[in-house]
């Protein structure tokens, strides 16, 4: 009995969008095959575990949200362990291993995991297994899979060492025997560990697929030498495969009648109060021949209590594309059932640990409502989903290829043909026509349809009762793995929604033109606690916002202009704006920036155009980071001498990182310090909330 207890470990997860939970569930499932029992809980369920008295090893899987915060489910836990009155040996008894999830596109990579890891170390806890940091930018599985593979041996060694400690603390072995026993124990421990390694190899190989590889591949001839989504080449096409364990099904769907009403959209949102507001204006900011199409929408919030500051963001609740929903219903063979209400329940007797009704699925709604408003049907399928789809695929060649894509051997193919190609469930079902998943599998494996976040591009002070925002219509061109082009879920829907406002006479029976009815959208606030104007108006600040990254700065400038009008006696610091786009005549989004310059709201406006040709002897700078370097002394003066603020908004990978490098170089040059020292100064500016970013990947 004692031995059985020793094989338990505590498994905690902290998730924002379900990723960390899915990985924890994978660990829980594999634990049994290794003779271990995982006691799994969400880290927020602090009434179900107690780290202060925990004697068994602890495994933590934790994601990162926002610009480096722990997920919402971990906030109470983090607050508790960050109590400064806790002694440095508070967790001296604790052995743990931690897997952090993050995205290196963002500055504070895996900061949620790093925060917890560092604090546990400060409180005396010991690693029994090295911390893993998985990067969603290149594929979480590149770190997650080997980390889980190595976990089992680390856990078993931790149990053996724990057993050894307990043996050493038992009452008095005569000293004459002690050394001999210790040597004997070391040899015994070594052989036990060796046995565990062999046992571990056997457990690992238990999920190896040993069937003979299929000779015929979908849409492939013997001449094909290049792999694709549906076709593999040696060595993978001739390999035995390590595939994940089949996830246990846990959802049951019952069709009812067609009578009743769907729940209100507000019931799908737990983040705050939702407001249904009319779209009163739509303007295309770019020319028709611009590479990207940018729209500005104005919302009427006068009849609501919705409040915001310039720099805040808000979320739009959006549906999936109606044609994609219809196609999915058709493939599932449920076209006739779209308007039927369904009851979703947890399957009795399921083997899934902690199976619960998904919070984002209503207790009762129509099938079409679930597929339209609740499930992210565009989500990139996880390997566990592919594994489940294998069982629903009848063609042998298609089945084998899906097995390859979810296998350890097929990791690079999964990254190339699914992850990097942005392949979704519909793409897979088109490519593998014999795959016919059940509705419950979709509900089990597709994540919640997330509301989309946008920066506010107006000032309530300047335009009371109005809220503006700017966005590019996201385009996903066709590619070999995904032969159908498509638009972004939310931006495509918004563009279609406001088409009557953009083209009032097009396809209209109304001879006067215009739209007879005002379209409404549902929104909720997502306040930003830091990306705001300086509290002291006399403090100077610099703004960097190429493309639609200029959006929040329009709100900044409108707000500053109104303050200048209302408070002529106030002192206002200088303001800089660095803006860039491809072509001056096609996508210079806000040419009225000149007005801010002329009335003194904006002190300096610096623009660049990356695709315009120049006849000048010295070519002008192409990108905002290049322009910033031309004003090195001014940047250093504002940041270092005048304690000003520096704001960046826009694309992270292709712009914000470049701006970051430029600022480091400027600080290094102007301070006559090495690059490392300059990076430390920049880190201090971030810490002081004077170097602020609102970026996306």
Short précis:
This protein is an alpha/beta fold and 697 residues long. Helices cover 35% and strands 18% of the residues.
Give a structural overview.
The chain has 697 residues and is an alpha/beta fold. It folds into three domains: 7-163, Rossmann fold; 251-445, Up-down Bundle (NADPH-cytochrome p450 Reductase, Chain A, domain 3), CATH 1.20.990; 541-695, Rossmann fold, CATH 3.40.50. It contains 21 helices and 24 strands. The strands form six sheets. Strands 1, 2, 3, 4, 5 and 6 form a six-stranded parallel beta sheet that branches. Strands 15-12-19-10-11-16 form a six-stranded antiparallel beta sheet. A five-stranded parallel beta sheet has the order 22-21-20-23-24, sandwiched between helices. It is globular and about 75 Å long. Residues 1-6, 171-206, 214-223 and 507-516 have low confidence and may be disordered. Residues 272-534 form the FAD-binding FR-type domain.
Features:
alpha/beta; Rossmann fold; NADPH-cytochrome p450 Reductase, Chain A, domain 3; 3 domains; six-stranded antiparallel β-sheet; 21 helices; disordered N terminus
Write the layout of secondary structure elements.
Layout: H1 2-6, E1 8-14, H2 19-33, E2 37-42, E3 58-62, H3 75-81, E4 95-102, H4 111-122, E5 126-127, E6 132-135, H5 141-169, H6 175-205, E7 208-209, E8 241-242, E9 251-255, E10 274-284, E11 294-300, E12 313-317, H7 322-331, E13 341-346, E14 364-366, H8 367-374, H9 383-390, H10 396-406, H11 411-419, H12 425-431, H13 439-445, E15 452-455, E16 466-472, E17 475-476, E18 486-487, H14 489-497, H15 499-502, E19 520-526, E20 541-544, H16 551-566, E21 575-581, H17 593-598, E22 604-609, H18 624-630, H19 632-641, E23 645-651, H20 652-671, H21 675-687, E24 691-696
Parallel strand pairs: 1-2, 1-3, 3-4, 4-5, 4-6, 20-21, 20-23, 21-22, 23-24
Antiparallel strand pairs: 7-8, 9-13, 10-11, 10-19, 11-16, 12-15, 12-19, 13-14, 17-18
Enzyme class: oxidoreductase
Pfam families: FAD_binding_1 (PF00667), Flavodoxin_1 (PF00258), NAD_binding_1 (PF00175)
GO cellular component, one term: cytosol
């Amino acid at each position: 009995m004692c031995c059985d207890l020793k094989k338990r470990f505590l498994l905690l997860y902290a998730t924002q969008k379900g990723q960390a939970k899915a990985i924890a569930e994978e660990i829980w499932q594999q634990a049994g095959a290794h003779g271990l029992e995982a006691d799994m809980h969400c880290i927020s369920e602090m009434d179900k575990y107690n780290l202060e008295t925990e004697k068994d090893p602890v495994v933590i899987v934790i994601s990162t949200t926002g610009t480096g915060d722990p997920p919402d489910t971990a906030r109470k836990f983090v607050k508790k362990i960050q109590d400064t009155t806790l002694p440095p040996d508070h967790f001296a008894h604790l052995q743990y291993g931690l897997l952090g999830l993050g995205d290196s596109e963002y500055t504070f990579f895996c900061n949620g995991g790093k925060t917890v890891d560092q604090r546990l170390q400060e409180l005396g806890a010991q690693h029994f297994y090295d911390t893993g940091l998985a990067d969603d930018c290149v594929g979480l599985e590149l770190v997650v899979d080997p980390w889980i593979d190595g976990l089992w041996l680390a856990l078993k060694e931790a149990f053996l060492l724990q057993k050894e400690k307990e043996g050493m603390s038992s009452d008095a072995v005569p000293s004459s025997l002690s050394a001999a026993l210790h040597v004997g124990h070391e040899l015994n421990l070594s052989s036990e560990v060796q046995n565990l390694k062999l046992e571990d190899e056997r457990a690992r190989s238990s999920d190896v697929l040993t069937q003979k590889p299929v000779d015929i591949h979908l849409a492939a001839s013997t001449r094909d030498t290049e792999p694709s989504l549906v076709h593999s080449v040696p060595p993978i096409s001739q390999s035995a495969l390590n595939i994940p364990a089949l996830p246990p099904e846990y959802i049951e769907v019952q069709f009812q009648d067609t009578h009743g009403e769907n729940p209100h959209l507000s019931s799908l949102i737990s983040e705050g109060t939702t407001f249904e507001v009319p779209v009163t204006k739509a303007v295309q900011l770019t020319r028709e021949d611009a590479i990207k199409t940018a729209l500005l929408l104005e919302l009427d919030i006068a009849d609501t209590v919705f409040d915001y500051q310039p720099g805040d963001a808000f979320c739009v609740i959006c549906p999936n594309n109606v044609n994609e929903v219809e196609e999915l219903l058709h493939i599932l063979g449920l076209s006739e059932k779209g308007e039927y209400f369904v009851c979703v329940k947890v399957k009795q007797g399921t083997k899934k640990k902690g199976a619960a009704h998904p919070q984002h699925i209503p207790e009762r709604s129509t099938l079409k409502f679930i597929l339209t408003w609740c499930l992210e049907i565009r989500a990139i399928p996880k390997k566990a989903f592919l594994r489940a789809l294998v069982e629903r695929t009848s063609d042998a060649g298609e089945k084998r290829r899906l097995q390859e894509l979810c296998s350890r051997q097929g990791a690079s193919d999964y990254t190339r043909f699914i992850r990097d190609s942005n392949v979704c469930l519909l793409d897979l079902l088109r490519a593998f026509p014999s795959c016919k998943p059940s509705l419950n599998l979709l509900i089990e494996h597709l994540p919640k349809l997330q509301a989309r976040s946008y920066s506010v591009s107006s000032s309530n002070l300047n335009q009371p009762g109005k809220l503006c925002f700017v966005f590019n219509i996201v385009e996903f061109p066709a590619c070999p793995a995904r032969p159908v082009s498509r638009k972004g879920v939310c931006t495509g829907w918004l563009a279609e929604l406001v088409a009557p406002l953009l083209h009032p006479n097009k396809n209209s029976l109304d001879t006067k033109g215009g739209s007879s009815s005002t379209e409404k959208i549902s929104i909720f606030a997502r306040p930003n606690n830091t990306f705001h104007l300086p509290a002291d108006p006399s403090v100077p600040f610099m703004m960097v916002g190429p493309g639609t990254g200029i959006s929040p700065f329009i709100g900044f400038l409108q707000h500053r202009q109104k303050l200048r009008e209302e408070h002529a006696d106030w002192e206002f610091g200088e303001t800089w704006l660095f803006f860039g786009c491809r072509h001056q005549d096609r996508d210079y989004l806000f040419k009225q920036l000149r007005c801010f310059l002329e009335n003194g709201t904006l002190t300096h406006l610096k623009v660049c155009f990356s695709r315009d040709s120049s006849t000048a002897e010295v070519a002008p700078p192409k990108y905002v980071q290049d322009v910033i370097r031309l004003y090195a002394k001014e940047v250093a003066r504002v940041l270092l001498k005048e304690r000003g603020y520096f704001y960046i908004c826009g694309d992270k990978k292709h712009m914000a990182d470049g701006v970051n490098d430029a600022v480091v170089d400027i600080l290094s040059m102007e301070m006559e310090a090495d690059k490392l020292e300059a990076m430390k100064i920049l880190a201090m500016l971030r810490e002081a909330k004077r170097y602020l970013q609102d970026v996306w990947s």
